[in-house]
C-alpha cells in the first residue's frame, strides 16, 4: 500500500509491504499481495526528487501503467499531456525511493503503484491477469527462485553469511562466483538487518576498501558509503597495512588487514539483474 500525505505541494510516499518471504527448496514465496493497482491520478502535478528510470512516449495512461508494471524498478510514474503526435511522455520513477516533491505543472499527472507484484487488473476484477517474468512462477507470479537456498532476503536484496573464514580477496572471489558481491550497505535500516543475521559480536569482511587511495574508503563498485557516521569512534588509522573493511555486529566498521581471515557476507540485488 502507498500512502500519500499532502502538505502544500509536498507529497511523501511510503511503500508498506511484507518483505519477509517464506522459504521452501530455495524458493521465495511472497506473502504480500501480487496484484498491481494504482492510486487515483493526481492532475496538474508532476513528481520530482526521484530517479527517473526511463522516459518513453505512449498513447495512453494505461500504456504508461503497463510500462510501470513490467519494470521491476517502477514505483510511480509521471504522464505528460498529449504532444503534436498525439502521444504522452511517460516517466518511470525508480522503485524504493520513499519521498518525492509534487510540483504543479499544467497538463501533467502522476500515479503510484499500490502493490509490488508483476500482475495487473485493469478492469478491477478479482482475478488478476499475470505475465510472469523469467524465474517468476505461480498463478499470481508470487514464487521466484531468485532466492537461492541459504540466502536471506531483505527488501530487494539477498544476503548470505559464509560458513568458513577467508582473506578479503578470497571472500570477494567467492561472492562473485555465486553471482553476488561482498556486502555493501545502503542505509542504517539495512545495517540493522545485517545485525540480525550475524552472531553476537561476530566480525565479518564487508565490501569496503581504501586500497586505491589511502583514507578514501569506497565500496567495491567505487561508490562512497552513504552512512554517516560511518565509523565507530575515531576514523581508522590503519595506514597502508589495513586497507579492507570489517564489520562487528552491533558495533561498527573497522579497518582490517586484507590478508587476515574472517567470515564474510555476500549480497546480490534484484535491481542489478
Automatic annotation (TrEMBL):
C-type lectin domain boundaries: 154-267
InterPro entries (UniProt xref): C-type_lectin-like, C-type_lectin-like/link_sf, CLec_Tetranectin-domain, CTDL_fold, EGF, Pan_app
Secretion signal span: 1-26
GO cellular component: extracellular space
Residues that span the membrane, as ranges: none
GO molecular function: carbohydrate binding; growth factor activity
Keywords of the record: Lectin, Secreted, Signal
Cellular compartments annotated: Secreted
Name of the protein this chain belongs to: C-type lectin domain-containing protein
Organism: Desmophyllum pertusum
